[in-house]
Amino acid sequence: MRSNVNLSRIARGASCCGLERIVCTGQTKLEQRIARDGAETLLIEVHRTLPPVLKKMREEGYRLVGLEQASDSHDLHTYAFQRKTALVIGNERTGLTPELLELLDDVVEIPVWGMPYSYNVATATVMTLYEYCRQYPDG
Questions:
Q1: Model pTM?
Q2: 1 pLDDT above the threshold of 70
Q3: CA-CA-CA-CA torsion sign (14, 121, 72, 128)
Q4: The domain 4-135 belongs to what CATH superfamily?
């Protein structure tokens, strides 16, 4: 993430969805006034790069699902998340790198019907987390 505001908005939504941790690369700072309780309830892990972390998560049984507009992506409205899913999001401007896309099991995208052609990264992430929670309403 380039923006602490976006990371803080994601943390707030993630906390509402019952997540316990967020894995990040780069500089991370949560804005308390935006993240609210998410700043206190979430474990924020910071790593230099994601590939080793993603490989370990796969070994632990996680399905790696990217959020990106890609030629082979699945529509979020019809995608069935596995219970043990790690959602992978990219940089606000550049998205997920080809290197990261190759490591993923699936890619989902949220349909857009107007301009601009994509949602803000924090908005899209929280929408996706909400869809996961909708599929698993008992937590």
A1: 0.94
A2: no
A3: positive
A4: SPOUT methyltransferase, trefoil knot domain (3.40.1280.10)
